[in-house]
What we know:
By secondary structure, the protein is an alpha/beta fold.
Amino acid sequence: MKLVDLRSDTVTKPSKEMWDNLKSLDDSKIGDDVYGEDPTINALEEKAAHLIGKEAALYVTSGTQGNLISLMAHTNPHDSVLVEELSHIYRNEINSATKIAQLEVKTYASNKGAPDLDKLFNLINKIQDSESKLRVLCVENTHNYHGGAIIRPHILNTLHKLVEEKELKFHLDGARIFNAAVATNTNVIEFSKYADSIMFCLSKGLSCPVGSLVAGSSQFISKARKYRQMVGGGMRQAGIIASFGLLALDDNWIQRLKEDHKNAKSLAKGLEAMELPIQLNVPETNMVIMTLPEAIRIGKVIRRLGKEGILALPIDSTRIRFVTHFGINRDDIKYALKKMEIVLPSVF
Ligand SMILES: Cc1ncc(COP(=O)(O)O)c(C=O)c1O
């Protein structure tokens, strides 16, 4: 049976060029990265730092690890950090900030990931008036659970001013920051320049098998490197997996994300045309969120779609997420819509 896997852009596999590049590696291209001696990782970190407009970057095992060590590098145990209430850090990172970094994690509400400035200002005042030591504001961009929503540079600029005024650090969970840049035809630096630190993933739409990067000042990265070691992220001859990232950060590969965005728009348009009692986001990047009436059991909907080869994931009890990526082309979207046209009307 044909499968159209729309669960996540993390299911992507490398391009042919990435595999070919891997074959060109030899002993001279790898070394012990804990000693800073892996030329491929060093090249990747340099390329990433340049691209994102920061002094330095660090290759880490995952986005989760990148967020954790960024928070550790900005704080001391018992400090607090402020994250969005539907953010990956808050919802999906198994409380690592609390359990490992010993931080108090506080949340703010948002409109598609972007906080209301006055409310945020008051919340920060309230926290700073209390005992806890607030150190970091985190923003997720694009925002996963808000359907790949983009937080525009002018909003990041305003947040940056607030963060400076309140003497905080600004961490950007930019797991999909290149989706934001490409969708708005903006240089990624316009998004990253307001943040003290940014994490972005190679293993999502950029289709690498493993890895993320953290970027910031040289001082921040040397601290982050120490914390990476602490959480077991020193990987020795990891140039073998990091090599995929060197090609993933080429402009032509980054621009390919536009195809995913087009496909997400086609999917949303096709679903809308079915005139079902569902709500859909207007996809800004590579995610379509379908909200179903509360009476519908979405587990059943996902199972029925799965039986037809269309894979998706729930976000909560009423929302299903479909993600487009390198493994999905226009024909796959047409095929998925045909199957959805059979399955979806039957669940209402
Ligand atoms: C917004 C966001 N941040 C961080 C992560 C964590 O990345 P990883 O799965 O590499 O740990 C994800 C993963 O999906 C994500 O969507």
